[in-house]
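Bit of a strange request maybe. I'm writing a small parser for structure token strings and I need a real example to test against, not something I typed by hand. Could someone generate the tokens for this chain?
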Amino acid sequence: MSNQSKILNTITQYFVYGLVFLFPLFFLPITRDFLVYSKFYFLAAVLFIVLLLSLGKFLLTKKFTWVHNLATQSLILILLSYVLSIVLMSPNKLQAVFNPQYGLILLTSMVLLYLYASHAFARAKISPILPIAVSGLLVSVLALIVMVDPFQGTELPAYWSFLSNTTFNTIGSSVHFIAFLVFTLVGSSLYMWRTYARSRVVNEANRTMLIMLGVIVLFTLLALIFHVFIVSQQILTEGAQIIIPPFSLSWFAAVEVLKNPMTAIFGVGVDNFSSLFTQVRTVNYNLSDLWQVNSFNTSRSTFLHIFTEQGILGVIGFSLLISLFLKNMKHVKLETAGMFITSLIILAILPPTGITFFLFFVALAMMAADFHKRKEQEEYVIDLSTLTPIFIGMIVIIALILGGSGYFMGRHFMAEYYFKLSLDAVADNSLQKLYENQAKALQYNNNSEEFHRQFAQTNLLVANNMASVEADKLTDQDRETITQAIQAAIVEAKAATALNPQKVTNWQALAGVYRQIINVAENAPVWAVSAYQQAIVLDPRNPLLRLDLGGVYYLFENYDEAQKLFEQAVSLKPDWSNAHYNLAWTYYQKKIYGSAVDQMQIVVGLLDAGTQPEDYKAAQKNLDEFKKTYEEELAKIEQEQAAQGGDQGQQGLAPAGELNLPVAPATQLEKKIELPEEASPGAAVGQ
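Reply from user aminoacidic:
Good idea to test on real output. This should exercise your parser:
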């Protein structure tokens, strides 16, 4: 091997170790969900450089070298399951490819990390546990500093406001932060134990290592204890919640895919879990504290998520991979085995994220390195120095793949960058910057449902701002601009439904757009009803959708339909005071005063006078008014019965900060806008 090749190998090894060390630490607040997206782009960027180094080595040696790895076949099957699931099942295929938590690019990057890391760990003199352990130390120290709230009383710029959160960490959610600390703690503790046992027999040179590992274990343990304490305090005293999908519904979703041969084999498609979650959502879920979370994008367990989105094919791939390493676990070091088992537990109990897959594939790489240290790796070398056409052809193909990957990843990054700028514009109260940056984000990535939904709301905001001017001051040009903004809002909301017609969030957003233009656009009420009905089909046990649709009917005094929907909302969530409140007023408007009293009595019983004083007073006042009206109506009926000498009986009673009746949008125009038929929810979206 030439010196240049050795240098490239050494540089590659440094990049791999640097990636393992920096991935848990890295973040840049220049994208939305920056702890997720910045790690995703960092991972892809470093591996892109590593691939370029490999290409450089190939150019120098004109030899294609493949190092045998025991997991190659399983990894190919896993990637194949992802590709087939996306191609055959995913509604929004490009979004599934670029999803930063569990998409195809993330998994491909993790596979590449495993292949390069297992090779680098096997040849390096430094233990592979050290970069992840030292990274864990720095993550813990930073978390401990933030826990003491060093910026208390300091007005931080909006850009850095997250530092005022005492539970902030560089990993992400609290549960994944705890999982990372446990992973690091297990590995560091076992490595320290093995080093200590070995040092008593061999020499005293390991004392420095023991001290360093002791410091790592100490700070990691402190960060773990204090973080759990702070989160527990927030849950007990402030009512905070750890929002993760319920295990029961995750299990129901996994079982649901078995009912159809295609979904059983290939799953429901990558990035499509939410569409199945809304189908298996139960009434009991509505009684939980999470009921206002309409859907989750991930399962409770990474294993269940794989089964749900990639089907049996994905399960087989991961099962073969895991079983292969379990069978060879006796040949690995104690700390390696401990970290591997810990990573499996994390995959079993936590939703999929970049950090869960990172810990799993790093543990696999460490195990593979231990195997290959015992047994020399087989290398397959193809010399292309005499096969110039093939060599040039491979260079062109590899360059095109790398160039295309870099181009599309760059566009995806720029889209997220501009979208983050649009969110910053909200804090600056700049509607122009908000609009311009969201438009730029969509230019770079037109396949993001979230971008389309948000841009729809931005266009509505533009229309509302212009329509808020007094009617006699509106020019024809203003009306034309308002019309264009409303049409753009509808187009953007419909674009989201076209990208994924199975996701209830998209239909809910479209219905919301129609509802907000009820007073300014013809046919908007009909279209709002149609969109809400489609949302209810996709999420049949969601009480909020029925309340919203009932609200549309209530606004237009169709109290019969409103009553039906409010009654359905009450049956789906009996402890929801606002549903009972709307139903009470609907009964009152229909002059069913006895039922109105009963429902308002339920509202008063559900409200807490201590924590909801305004709502409680309003409900009590309404109840008194309803009772008075009911008593007056009864007296009138009794007088009529006495005059007629009949006995007609009484009317039957209906079954037994959040009280809000449906309110029409404030924006109104003297003359409503006539929108084209293409603006209806059923019309196709123009390309």
